[in-house]
């Protein structure tokens, strides 16, 4: 048969193939196959005596019973989770709007439908269709939103500003109305800038729709909020005219003092809950551009601000700010930061505020009303989480309607984070 040589080191190892050895190996392999087949045949044909009890049999039955119970529990848990998820969606309004409901306005149905782009896929974004943007909270106000959307396309928009405000305050934002023409008002008697900053606005150039007051004279005696008491009275010696340039208490900071704290200069800012726009007016006198966020709650704030030659932003604080990151040198806010007394909403707002404020920029908290010590502590802890530098921090009391109230004013500087 020959031989096979394997060289190892300097010598060789030689193996002789013998016929006898090969036959022995073949015999052992045959015996092994036969033995295996006999055992297999025995295993398949053997019937155990059911009268005899064996520990392994009991163990097998117990394991099967436990497995069935665990499977049942897991199915119950899965079913409960699905029910809870469905309940949460119904409570929060995350379910999509049911367009088959009979009271849905046709304009709302058309708006919510997906529309293919006329030129196909956009090469930059790869978007193929336009999707309507409607806040999930609109689902919880279906009757109101359908009433709001019940208008004639290409016609004049219904005179229902109060309905729009109710929807916004319920979280239905942005509003879906698109295809109607807003009522036009003749803007006669507007003054040139900067004279317009401190001239009273004519009653006839604003809309009083849905408002209890129908003139600015009526608004002068109104306390619309803690930050807007008689704020539409621009008389030369009035309170509004003296704000930010003349302090009435230790909580009132002066604009020039705050601007001096700015690192790298203050050029552009955001005023949250700015009322009639007086903060932006004072900043405009110092060549600083300020956008004033305000809603028309009980007063035509946005039109009044625009008539003064300033930039109004009609947006609730529940909405993410439509600005890029790190763009503002200054953010100013007062008691509007309370956002309904809900700490989770304040946290969302503070994170968004931090996002749009540049490193080294200033956050001016102006006379924030602390209803109790707990609210003051919560706000303080939240601010400290961002690591802002306290340039100025004053807690003081004011008397309002015979009652002593605690207010917090502060100037904070956003740190550089790496």
UniProtKB/TrEMBL annotation:
Keyword flag Protein biosynthesis: no
Membrane-spanning ranges: 24-44
Keyword annotations: Glycoprotein, Membrane, Methyltransferase, Signal-anchor, Transferase, Transmembrane, Transmembrane helix
Mode of membrane association: Single-pass membrane protein; Single-pass type II membrane protein
Subcellular location(s) per record: Endomembrane system; Membrane
A Pfam family this chain is assigned to: Methyltransf_29
One annotated GO biological process: methylation
InterPro entries reported in the protein's UniProt record: Prob_Methyltransferase (IPR053223), Put_SAM_MeTrfase (IPR004159), SAM-dependent_MTases_sf (IPR029063)
Matching SUPFAM superfamilies: S-adenosyl-L-methionine-dependent methyltransferases
GO molecular function annotation: methyltransferase activity
Main location: membrane
Gene Ontology cellular-component annotations: endomembrane system; membrane
Family of the protein in this entry: Belongs to the methyltransferase superfamily.
This protein's name: S-adenosyl-L-methionine-dependent methyltransferase
Lineage of the organism: Eukaryota, Viridiplantae, Streptophyta, Embryophyta, Tracheophyta
């Amino acid at each position: 048969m020959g031989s096979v040589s394997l060289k190892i080191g300097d010598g060789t190892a030689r193996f002789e193939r013998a016929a006898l050895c090969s036959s022995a190996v073949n015999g052992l392999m045959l015996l092994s196959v036969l033995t295996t087949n006999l055992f297999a045949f025995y295993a398949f044909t053997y019937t155990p005596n059911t009268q005899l009890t064996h520990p392994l049999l009991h163990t097998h039955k117990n394991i099967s019973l436990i497995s069935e119970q665990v499977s049942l529990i897991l199915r119950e848990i899965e079913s409960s989770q699905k029910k809870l998820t469905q309940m949460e969606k119904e409570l929060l309004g995350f379910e999509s709007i049911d367009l088959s409901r009979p009271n849905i306005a046709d304009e709302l149905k058309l708006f919510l439908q997906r529309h293919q782009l006329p030129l196909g896929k956009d090469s930059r974004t790869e978007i193929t269709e336009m999707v309507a943007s409607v806040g999930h909270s609109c689902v919880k106000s279906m009757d109101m939103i359908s009433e709001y959307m019940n208008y004639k396309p290409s016609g004049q928009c219904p005179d229902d500003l109060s309905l729009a405000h109710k929807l916004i305050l319920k979280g239905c934002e942005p509003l879906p109305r698109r295809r109607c023409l807003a009522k036009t008002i003749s803007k006669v008697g507007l003054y040139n800038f900067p004279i317009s900053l401190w001239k009273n606005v004519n009653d006839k150039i604003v809309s009083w729709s849905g408002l209890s007051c129908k003139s600015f004279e009526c608004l002068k005696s109104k306390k619309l909020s803690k930050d807007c008491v008689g704020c539409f009275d621009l008389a030369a010696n009035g309170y509004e005219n003296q704000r930010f340039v003349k302090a009435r208490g230790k909580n009132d900071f002066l604009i020039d003092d705050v601007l001096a704290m700015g690192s790298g200069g203050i050029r552009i800012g955001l005023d949250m809950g700015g009322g009639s726009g007086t903060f932006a007016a004072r900043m405009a006198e110092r060549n600083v551009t300020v956008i004033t966020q305000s809603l028309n709650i009980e007063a035509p704030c946005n039109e009044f601000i625009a008539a003064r030659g300033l930039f109004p932003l009609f947006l609730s604080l529940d909405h993410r700010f439509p600005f890029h990151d790190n763009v503002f040198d200054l953010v100013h806010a007062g008691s509007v930061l309370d956002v309904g007394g809900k700490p989770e909403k304040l946290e969302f707002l503070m994170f968004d505020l931090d996002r749009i404020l540049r490193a080294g920029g200033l956050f001016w908290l102006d006379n924030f009303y602390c209803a109790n010590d707990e609210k003051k502590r919560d706000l303080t802890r939240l601010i400290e989480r961002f690591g802002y530098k306290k340039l100025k921090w004053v807690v003081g009391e004011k008397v309002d309607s015979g009652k002593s109230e605690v207010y917090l004013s502060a100037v904070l500087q956003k740190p550089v984070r790496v």
